[in-house]
Amino acid sequence: MDNKTALLLRDLATKYETADFIASDPVSFPHRYSERKDIEVAAFIAQWLAYGRRDLFLKVLDKIGCQMGESPYQYIMNGEFEKCNGNDTCLYRFYTLADFYSLCKTLQNIYSEFDSLESVVEKENILSGFTKRFSEVKGIPMDTKSACKRLCMFLRWMVRKNSPVDFGLWNSISPDKLIIPVDVHVFRQSRLLGLTSAVSVSMKTALEITDKLKEVFPSDPLKGDFALFGLGIDSMR
Hints:
By secondary structure, this protein is an all-alpha fold. The protein has helices at residues 3-16, 36-49, 54-68, 72-77, 97-113, 128-133, 149-159, 184-193, 203-214, 223-235, and strands at 90-92, 95-96.
């Protein structure tokens, strides 16, 4: 990577990784809470819903937050989601309330077994534990061949420390093991910068971009996620 591109990425990462980033991002939902388990539950639900127009899914998250009250974790463990079982009413786009029930039931099962979602992580593949445990939940990738954008985003939130945006709650994963969450915008900017020559988004693409970002941010490649986001914002001005 040339020095000009590296400098641009560093500058944009510093510019956009601020508390101001939170308000219009799905990470705003878990930022409503202060307890670890509440943050984990809210964050996992937020990533599950985070596709399509932000203004629309943020409104859905707001409604879910009102239903959950002060503790998403207690909402899950008390089984307050049971009323959604078998309910085919639309929640958001192709998700129904029954799908939300399936997600919550899986979370309940995991927390009945473990103290944290961090225990689901597998050392050899940090994503595969989630694809296995949530295999019956619509919207969770069935394997790690796709870019797994939203799961990668969730892991960024949980792992990166000393960030005004991310929570850094987990210690079992090093930040340099994280994988960039690649959506269409990140993909476009990555191609423009020469971070990837791929023609479609896949896990291979995400790993290629991540490896390039390690040239600039060796111990914390996903700091570059903010840079690529910022590049997209700046290009529209």
